[in-house]
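The data are quoted verbatim here:
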Amino acid sequence: MIQLVVFDMAGTTVNEQNVVYKTVHQAIEHAGYPVSLDTVLLIAAGKEKFEAICNVLEHIGGGSLSLQTARAIHRDFEALLDDAYDALTPMPMPGAERMFTTLRLRGIKVVLNTGYKRPVAEGLLQKLHWAEGRTFDLLLTADDVTQSRPHPDMIFAAMKRFGITDAQQVAKIGDSIADIEEGKNAGCGIAAGITTGAQTAEQLQTAHPTHVFNGLEELLAVL
């Protein structure tokens, strides 16, 4: 019996048109490193954003680029993202709010987790009018743990919060390989990908998920 579902935010439950990864792409190209958006989406999706930038730079530069360069790009990314999010009107993914309500009525805890910093995540939630304790049960961000995805720290923190000791009672769903790896590293009973965000079904399958969904409603059939 699943007692807890941990949902990724952008691309899974929140439609923000991949603004974050478009901004990562913009910041890296601003610094003079040509890279395709598809490459950024493949390498960066789901990760804490400084780590994501480092990973993209390692991919395009063969590991020779400095941390100083990565930090400068990350500072530019954060400034660009503030402007992008000021202008953004995020929308719930189809079925997200109904999914949250259905799960919570069944006594299943709903957790949102993200590779964003907490202020960014909370800003998105405010625009959506989603509130912890009303729309969902808990928000966990990269700021709240020592190691972000694909490490399982956020899932373990959610389990601890709700007194769940068996990870087989936990489902994790997200739109990136990092999300699936996070769920598998935690030992979740369900570690599922979803095709509504950054990565394709074929890309998600490389992480060997328990399921790949085309929409959130498909999770209910599995539960």
User: Anything to note?
Assistant: The beta strands are 4-8, 14-15, 91-92, 109-114, 138-141, 170-174, 190-194, 211-213. The two ends are 8 Å apart (CA to CA).
